[in-house]
Specification:
5-stranded antiparallel sheet
Length: about 140
């Protein structure tokens, strides 16, 4: 009888050890998540465009701008927040096609963004219009 109890106890510990070996370990929190908030085709010459952001996207701690297809000279950015505040940012970036601005941290805690307005110019003589993409970091 004692051998049978010892065997059962040994089987119990083996199963317990196997169960802990296959238990998933908690993964560390992933870094910030970036979300595309919108994009606009840019016109030739000096112009301004706005990207409307709906509240469904949530709150953000930073933004960045990416440029596709054609280079632009980004002069200024105005971020319109959900509470009515407007933050103007002097950009002065010459962004090549495929380039992006630095990460622009938003003041305060995470903020709701209503829209972002861009002032830019382009001297592109090619037939391809550039595209500005607005990205928000959660």
């Amino acid at each position: 009888m004692k051998i049978q109890q010892a065997f059962q106890l040994l089987c119990f510990f083996a199963l317990a050890l196997a169960a802990t070996a296959f238990t998933p370990t908690p993964q560390p929190a992933q870094g910030p998540r970036w979300e595309l908030l919108g994009s606009r085709k840019v016109n030739y010459g000096l112009d301004r465009d706005a990207i409307e952001v709906t509240r469904q996207e949530g709150v953000f701690s930073a933004i960045k701008i990416q440029v596709k297809r054609s280079a632009i000279n980004l002069h200024k950015i105005a971020v319109h927040y959900g509470n009515g505040e407007v933050q103007e940012i002097e950009a002065r970036h010459n962004l090549p096609a495929g380039g992006e601005t630095r990460v622009i941290d938003l003041p305060g805690n995470k903020r709701v963004i209503r829209k972002v307005v861009f002032w830019y110019d382009t001297k592109n003589v090619a037939a391809r219009k550039g595209v500005i993409e607005l990205w928000g970091r959660h």
